[in-house]
Amino acid sequence: MTRPTRIEIDCSTGVESIIELTDAEIAQMEADAQAAEARKAEEDAVRQAEADAKASAQAKLATLGLTPDEIAALTK
Amino acid sequence: MANTMTLISSVTVGADGASSIDFTSIPSTYTDLLLKVSVRSNNASVLDTLGINFNGSSANYTMRNLLNEGGTPASYTQTAYASQNATGYQSGATATASTFGNTELYFPNYAGSNNKSVSVDSVSENNASAGWLWLGADLWSQTAAINRITLLCAGGTNSFVQYSTAYLYGIKNS
């Protein structure tokens, strides 16, 4: 299997190099990916909880007799 | 007011792809930097996130963005990629063939001794009704001059595909 590569451009010389990632770099990239995925899942859960709370609040306002326009005006 | 713009370096990704694009030894002789990026990743989705870090550092990155996520407005303080800044969209593997996400990044006073800010304007391209737009304000809370800029597929193990390009310009006010 081909090892992943990175492209490095030395701006002082204009020389472009294609460099294979080291084992350590590959391991770091995979660790970063796992960490990012976990943190993204946490953020998504927070956003979903906020959206659920907003929908619940709007439903309760509707049961109090507010029209959709009035609810929208409150939440702008 | 900046009034000159000089191409410092550019790169086009070859057939093997690249996990990152790394501009090193950036001269400190300009006032600002401008980076124009046209990239697509092999992420198995319609889009991917573009990442960036400076001087090889993996710390002190924060950002705030305004998004249109396929028709839904949103704004985030991104924390998912703390070792780099998420700094825009790029097209992913299921986006319309041969389309590339476009991002422009502006680095004012990149060689100064204050913390480094970046203005971001980004869009992922796809021939469909839904589009993704990103306006961002990035911050690297470090006072060192930026001498290296690394572009990545944010937080993932994806790669930039062939014909992805990045052009780095130096801006001067004289």
Structure write-up:
The complex is a heterodimer of chains A (76) and B (174). With 76 residues, chain A is an alpha+beta fold. Chain A has one domain. Chain A is built from two helices and two strands. Chain A has a two-stranded antiparallel ribbon with strand order 1-2. In chain A, 9% of the residues are buried. The mean pLDDT of chain A is 87. Chain B is 0% helix and 52% strand. Chain B has 174 residues and is mainly β. Chain B has a single domain (4-172), classed as Jelly Rolls, CATH 2.60.120. An eight-stranded antiparallel sheet of chain B has the order 1-12-3-8-9-10-5-6, with no helix packed on it. Chain B has strands at residues 4-12, 20-24, 32-39, 47-54, 61-69, 72-76, 85-91, 101-108, 116-124, 132-140, 149-153, 165-172. Chains A and B meet through strand 1 and helix 1 of A and strand 1 and strand 2 of B. Strand 1 of chain A pairs parallel with strand 2 (20-24) of chain B, so a sheet runs across the interface.
Features:
heterodimer; A: 76 residues; alpha+beta; two-stranded antiparallel sheet; 16% strand; B: 174 residues; mainly beta; Jelly Rolls; eight-stranded antiparallel beta sheet; four-stranded antiparallel beta sheet; globular
